[in-house]
Amino acid sequence: MSDKPSNVVEARSGLDAQQAELADRIARNTGNDGVHVTAIAGLSLIRASSPSQPIACVYHPSLCVVVQGRKRAMLGDEIYMYDALNYLVVSMSIPLVSQIIEATPAEPYLCLRIDVEPRLVNELLVQLGPAAPARAGGERALFLARMDAALLDAVLRLVRLLDAPAEAAVLAPLALREIHYRVLLGELGQRLRSLCEADGPSQRVARAIELLKARYTEPLRIEDLAAAAHMSASSLHQRFRAATATTPLQYQKQLRLQEARRLMLVEGLEAAAAAHRVGYESPSQFSREYRRLFGAPPRREVAAKRVAGEY
């Protein structure tokens, strides 16, 4: 017999049943591996039938819920492991290396991603009122927590709407609002609040990131970036690194290399043309930095992806 109280056993059983239903619905609405954008704005489903190699990418503000399988995300030297019923919140665009480490054809990796909507967070913060000061050491733009019953229930109701498109037009915005609300009430709520703190450090770093994303092909002067963020150069450098585990210059390089990779894989550009398009003047420098990020020179890495059928 179990030594656990009956209410604890019942709660665990309820979570298991909801997880099983969520996995079934995601599996039915994907069908094949990859990222699937759904008819519900801001909701994407991810499926993978086998473990992946580490992939360098840029995560945008989002809530990621793993339903089945296991994944890890690496931010600088930090490793974040998340599996079924853990959720990851990304509060601003950051460069990561992600890797699916547990997935099989019989039990694929299943995940859903919900875009974090700052406007919605702001509306909820007005209703929730001020919170206690955030604890020190919480400046990272990436954080991980365990799902609770209320958040899982809201997520499941949102995914159910994929099979009821007529209802989704009315009910999906309400479910998305509740999900944002549940995250704000949860253990990571204080850290998500900083995303929308009026003219706070996180907002200023986010402003610098948006400028970098808009002008990543141009030469970077940290003084110009700091002025746009209304910070000193030293303060921006410190806050930027605290949030993203990288520097503005390194961040710009990753944006350039990610876009060059897309141009080669999707649009078929040669390496030299892609390098020039994203702002590199030296093909040899581009090749060195590309290899450092993706593990192989541009032509070889792109050819391997095509042979593997990933593009």
UniProtKB/TrEMBL annotation:
One of its GO terms (molecular function) is DNA-binding transcription factor activity. Pfam families: AraC_N, HTH_18. Keywords: DNA-binding, Transcription, Transcription regulation. The keyword Glycosyltransferase does not apply. The keyword Acetylation does not apply. It comes from the Bacteria. Residues 206-304 form the HTH araC/xylS-type domain. Signal peptide: none annotated. This is AraC-like DNA-binding protein. It comes from Dokdonella fugitiva.
